[in-house]
Structure prediction request, 235 residues.
Amino acid sequence: MKLSDRLQAVASFVTPGLRVADIGTDHGYIPIYLTEQGIVPYAIAMDINKGPILRAQENIKENGLEKLIETRLSNGFDKLEPGEADCAVIAGMGGELITKILDNGRNVTDELKELVLSPHSEVWLVRKYLHNNDFKIIDEKMIIDEDKFYTIMKVVKGIDDIYSEEDYMYGKILIEKKDEVLMKYIYKEYNKVEKIFENISKNGTDNAKSRIAELEKEKKMLTNVMLSLIHISEP
Prediction:
């Protein structure tokens, strides 16, 4: 099975040999790819809605993987017992929903060897939740797929380093790696904020002043990250 660039990046973060639970599996593409390629021995495709589960079952059957992939109708981790999987993948949903799923499934996540997460929004919220709940991000990647930016992170249990506000917003590991895609994202965000700033600056209302202060703070953070990304250490 050929995956989109986004799903390929998500799949690449799964450690080979682990049993995988895909939370919010949709069409079941990630479990199918991982088992078909022999990357994982077994997978559980889970979703809260019957429609995606039925689509996943059809795709699994088409690829002859019924013995390697099980499907379950489940709200988050509800139908997964502790120890049934080694890795959980949660991708394709907002950051707030991901944190709720993680929080409600602590009895399961505490037993996992790793999490592979790819929130579509509010990535900072996921980073902050992980940092405050004894999870450690050990790798992070940003990609562009169909002109949209996506972040993928690999997470294990553990205490992480101190995070700055910029680290939460834009990714400590991405900044440290001087990620090229992150640089493109920062430039895009800076230009977007600058345009909003110029438009609102013409408005003298109290609401506009409050928004201007927020935009100035955001511009400062973006500038700090930009400088970190282009900084070249002296030999």
Observations:
- The longest strand covers residues 135-145.
- The first helix runs from residue 5 to 12.
- The mean pLDDT is 93.
